[in-house]
Amino acid sequence: MMVSELEDARTGHSGPGRQVVPFAAAPAEQLSAMPHDGGSVNGGEALRVADVSRSFGLVQALDRVSLSVNHGEVVALVGDNGAGKSTLVKVISGVITPDEGELYVNGERVAIRSPNDAADRGIRTIHQDLALADNLDVVENLFLGRELCRGVWPLRRVDFAAMRQRTTAVLAELGIGTISDIGVPVAQLSGGQRQTVAVARATLENCAILLLDEPTASLGLKEARHVLELVHRLRAQGTAMVIISHNMRQVFEVADRIVVLHLGKVGAVFRRADTTPQEVVKAIMGKAS
Ligand SMILES: Nc1ncnc2c1ncn2[C@@H]1O[C@H](COP(=O)(O)OP(=O)(O)OP(=O)(O)O)[C@@H](O)[C@H]1O
Ligand SMILES: [Mg+2]
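That is the input. Now the predicted structure with magnesium ion docked in place:
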């Protein structure tokens, strides 16, 4: 299989022409000064899901789910196992199509029928079931389908040195020090290491909307902390994010709003500043507060 086919099949990013833009780091003082009062930083709706339903046979995974995320806002999507969280992320990222409902990006109704459609709309996703190509190494996974090139046609060549350099820089920016050899196939990495590669891949390019499905689930403490810092940094840059997590401490650290899914329906929506972990946990269990 060609690398580009692999790319389409696994992650949906398309074409060698995609520009790779490193994300800029926000200084630490800017992070601490960021508004975190439950409102959005930049305002303006980046993404809206309206009345989306999806069933698998007899299982109604999503039942008229609506939510919106503003630019510079982090929405935590929480709920029990099987509540429909990953299904919703897959609908937004074009992995599965909804039975009903609409998606809007920047206020415009969009049809997202494939991961490529989502990527074209500036949507990047870190899926729970990671989409890495096992036989490729860390560098190849990071740049799969968007390889850096140098020279002009007919002498245009993939620039392996630049990709290796950029990979090392991105891993350092993310504080990932546990991958000693970026040249080994990712099949040889641990679950946590693979997850850090997936996070690095999703953050390699600036994107308007980032969906993170349990990005810290199998990470060590240090790596999890770096991912959360990255979320803060991207919010400061105006990225709209949906993050799925079962970890209430993490949810309360990063989220501006918390959307609770219960049996495929939106059970409750909270502004982080106005709620408590106990109240959110109750909603997750389907109890009225
Ligand atoms: N491809 C599929 N085929 C059949 N059923 C599916 C499929 N994907 C999801 N489901 C079902 O849809 C429901 C929602 O699943 P989903 O993966 O969205 O849950 P989740 O909230 O992400 O759970 P978790 O916290 O365990 O990751 C579950 O009942 C699941 O079994
Ligand atoms: Mg899930």
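Residues 3-284 form a domain with the Rossmann fold fold (CATH 3.40.50.300).
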